[in-house]
Amino acid sequence: MANMSTATQSATLGFASAPANAFKQTDPSKYISLGDFINNVNKPDNRAQLVKTFGNQGITGFLQLVGAVKTGGTADEVTWWEEQRLHPTATFTATGAVAAAKNITIPFTTASSGNTFSLRVNDVVLWNSVQRAVVAAVTSASVTLSNLADATLAAATSGTAYSLPIIGNLYGQGTDQPTQFLESNIVRRTNPYMIMKEIFKVTGSQATNIGWVDVGGGDYRWFIKGEADTRQRFIDKREMMMLLGQKNENTSPSTNFGSGTISGSEGYFSAIENRGLVTDGYVDNLADIDIILTALDRNGAGPEYALYVDRLQDLAIDDFVAKGGANSLTAGVATQFGAFNNSPNMAIELGFKSFGRGGYTFHKHDWKLLNEPNLLGTTATTTSAGAGFAGVMIPMATVVDPKTGNREFPLEINYKSTNGVSREMEHWLTGSFMGATNSTLDVLQFNYRSEIALCVRAANRHVLIKRA
To answer: In this structure, which topology does domain 89-174 adopt according to CATH?
Structure first.
């Protein structure tokens, strides 16, 4: 009867929806602790520390480690100059078949003849890579070669592209000087700046809520974690765009990109694909290294390189470097550490492993970006599976600018800047609390903006390793 009286009174006072007393909620013979009987009172045994399940997930730092410098810019694009080879070759495509003979006249199309203008009468060239021949005549549509040896010159095949190295010239006694001369050429390269943006928002109510997790420094406000992650994602994406960006060459895009056209910007990988050296598959034996060395020799490469590679490429190199046998790099090969003040210890402290081959020293480093499964990583378990990028070889030397004579780093991070205004990493707040007073909305918005471009000088000396 007493229980009925209590229930009636609660309903009368307007508390009919209030929780009932714990009395008789469960059979006392079935519970083993007070928490089973009164389940809304005990404080959870909470561990406030945030567990880094995937470790440090930031992927930036590559450009800084390889010596990329930062430079302010004052135009819509970066411009730099690269010299051509001192000794040009004459290249053309034959438009007709020519039989083997001591003297041959090779026709070629007018469209492809521009490259042959470096040829002059009396020039000595290499035909078929080994035969020495004199240019007897040259026009905009054909070239006549005479063999210096008393033998026939190799035949020419229609549709085949030919490259003739010019090794010198020959003139008779009493003859005049050449009527034409070679002018040094220079290549003007440009790369537009790219504008990147990001935001993060929090309401005034959420900004003052205290959670269960310590997000750092004893701060339990969860929005601090969200803002920090947004900033790190933006920094990571900014570096990835400098590595993976491309110029926008789509002449008929499906949209106008929201607010107008975008130029895009050439990233590091794109620069190597366009002007550098690219491997097709992992470098997993000594023969692969030797092929790369031969290509580097042809491009006047420096003696020191940094290798940034994914895990599979890292292990493949370790295998043929460390193991003995015909397919390994022998122990005790002299290496140089000029990039680390000639200190092997400094290289080790920065996480580099070094080895030498053919006068070159390679400093190997694991590249986290290429192992990140949500970005450029692969789930492949063998070196022959998967597609994408496996690593790069970066020259650790300065490059001489042929126009100014200045010695510059091969990689340069450029950002818009003038008169104290820098757009390298802009950050500002809009809202009505935490110091922001430029809006009436009860929202705080964190804004991020960057206008940057990467300058890749002498891309012909860089190597991009692609997975097969």
So the answer is: Elongation Factor Tu (Ef-tu); domain 3 (2.40.30)
